[in-house]
Amino acid sequence: MEPEQGVALLIEGEGGARSVLMVEAIQGQRQVVIKSLEANYRRVPGIAAATILGDGRVALILDVDALVAATRTAESPRLLQAG
User: Fold this and answer.
1) Which of 34, 37, 66, 70 lies in disulfide reach of 76, CB 3.0 to 4.6 Å?
2) Neighbour count for residue 68 (Cβ, 10 Å)
3) Cα–Cα distance measured from residue 21 to residue 68, given in angstroms and rounded to the nearest whole number
4) Are 47 and 35 within 8 A, CB to CB?
5) Of the candidates 80, 17, 28, which has an alpha carbon nearest to the alpha carbon of residue 54?
6) Residue 22: beta bridge partners?
7) Contact by Cβ (8 Å): 9, 27
8) Tens-of-pLDDT digits for all 83 residues of the chain?
9) What is the distance between the alpha carbons of residues 67 and 9, in angstroms, rounded to a whole number?
């Protein structure tokens, strides 16, 4: 994705480290019930939890600290590549 085609989010992790997360779009704000993905499925790197939206789709909750840490390791291409 080209930077001018997305939205830049400034995120701050535990310990105060700041990073920018590029996303395609912001879908809005919702109140949701968050379920642990690890307790109900298995551990997924970069994902903290999940929720089921009103239309039945599953939305994943990102683990921002894990994503920021992954950008500093060899693990980042696998963690950060969407597709």
Assistant:
1) 70
2) 19
3) 9
4) no
5) 28
6) 8
7) no
8) 676 788 988 888 777 878 888 888 888 888 888 888 788 788 888 888 999 888 898 888 888 888 777 776 655 455 555 44
9) 13
Distances (CA, A) of 23 to 9, 69, 80: 8, 18, 11
**CA 27, 30, 35, 40 torsion-angle sign:** negative
Cα separation, 60 vs 44, whole angstroms:
10
Note whether 82 and 67 are within 8 A (CB).
Answer: no
Three-class SS of the chain = CCHHHCEEEEEECHHHCEEEEEECCCCCCCCCCCEEHHHHCCCCCCEEEEEECCCCCEEEEECHHHHHHHCCCCCHHHHHCCC
